[in-house]
């Protein structure tokens, strides 16, 4: 499971329905999380990513140090499904998305991550799974972090 986390001062996501933009999620201070799920991901990956998101200390404390988490600041998450995080563009010019999970598996784990975050007391707004979306955000810092439940450094 992969998550691109952007610390934002505000963000919202719109889905397009009958040529009309409809806002499905909106937050002020917090994280926009682009979440990609692969076919081998399990509930353990969902818990790992959700726990990391909840406790990631990338908000400034009174000394200007990145030392506070979502829980510490009462900030929110705008969670967006993003199968393209598993694109493979190493060969050719058109990316392959064969590493992305099938929609039924991905949706289940996407919703599980949202539920875990909510159970931690985090306000979670979402896009709409398997829909064309427009995400608008103001990256604060800028701070952008990549999490991967499989990556070893």
TrEMBL record:
Keywords: Cytoplasm, Hydrolase, RNA-binding, tRNA-binding
Coarse class of the protein's main subcellular location: cytoplasm
Pfam families hit by this protein: Tyr_Deacylase
GO cellular component: cytoplasm
Location within or outside the cell: Cytoplasm
GO biological process terms on file: D-amino acid catabolic process
Family stated for the protein in its record: Belongs to the DTD family.
Task of the protein: An aminoacyl-tRNA editing enzyme that deacylates mischarged D-aminoacyl-tRNAs. Also deacylates mischarged glycyl-tRNA(Ala), protecting cells against glycine mischarging by AlaRS. Acts via tRNA-based rather than protein-based catalysis; rejects L-amino acids rather than detecting D-amino acids in the active site. By recycling D-aminoacyl-tRNA to D-amino acids and free tRNA molecules, this enzyme counteracts the toxicity associated with the formation of D-aminoacyl-tRNA entities in vivo and helps enforce protein L-homochirality.
The name this protein goes by in its record: D-aminoacyl-tRNA deacylase
Organism: Neisseria canis
Gene (name only): dtd
């Amino acid at each position: 499971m992969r998550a691109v986390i952007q610390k934002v001062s505000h963000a919202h996501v719109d889905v397009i329905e009958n040529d009309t933009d409809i806002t499905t999620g909106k937050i002020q201070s917090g994280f926009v999380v682009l979440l990609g799920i692969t076919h081998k991901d399990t509930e353990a990956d969902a818990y790992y990513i959700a726990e990391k998101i909840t406790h990631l200390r990338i908000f400034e404390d009174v000394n200007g140090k990145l030392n506070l988490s979502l829980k510490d600041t009462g900030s929110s998450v705008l969670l967006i499904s993003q199968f393209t995080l598993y694109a493979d563009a190493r060969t050719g010019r058109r990316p392959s998305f064969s590493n992305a999970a099938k929609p039924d598996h991905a949706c289940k784990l996407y919703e599980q991550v949202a539920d875990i975050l909510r159970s931690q007391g985090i306000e979670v707004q979402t896009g709409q799974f398997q829909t064309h979306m427009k995400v608008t955000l103001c990256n604060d810092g800028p701070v952008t972090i990549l999490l991967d439940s499989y990556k070893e450094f």
